[in-house]
Design a protein that fits this description.
Length: 144
């Protein structure tokens, strides 16, 4: 069923990486909406619901950390996963401090990326169900 697909907003300035992420996640029951700039991501995130934000850290004009901070101004619930070549401990710590729930360093294995997306969405939905904010009909199931 189409509505069971996870909606992922991916913000990545490199076109080849955007294409790879889209290919990998589409094959794993995700609908991926991509943006090249953080500014586009903010506008889309304000207009529609996503199950997860996937963010690069080093981008022109606005960093992933700044994007994370901007998203948290109006959305404190949707998990944020960084997928970035910025592997310095300072970059990773700052991402978590700004509100991220996960951080993968490029190049990560495709299976690792999928597993982390599914884990974060599953945890987010479980927390929302516990608080009574999510209808059980909206949950997804992992299939092998």
């Amino acid at each position: 069923m189409q509505s069971d697909r996870l909606r992922i907003l991916c913000t990545e300035d490199d076109g080849d990486t955007r294409d790879l992420i889209t290919f990998v996640l589409n094959r794993n029951n995700c609908e991926v909406v991509t943006t090249e700039t953080p500014f586009q991501a903010i506008e889309l995130a304000k207009l529609t619901h996503f199950d997860l934000y996937l963010v690069d850290n080093w981008m022109p004009r606005m960093s992933g950390n700044e994007l994370c901070e901007a998203l948290r101004l109006f959305d404190s619930e949707t998990p944020i996963l960084f997928y970035s070549g910025a592997a310095y401990p300072k970059d990773i710590a700052e991402a978590y401090a700004k509100g991220a729930q996960g951080y993968l360093v490029k190049p990560a294995d495709n299976d690792e990326l999928v597993a982390e997306v599914l884990r974060l969405v599953s945890e987010s939905r479980a927390q929302r169900m516990t608080r009574g904010e999510l209808n059980t009909e909206n949950t997804f199931s992992q299939t092998a």
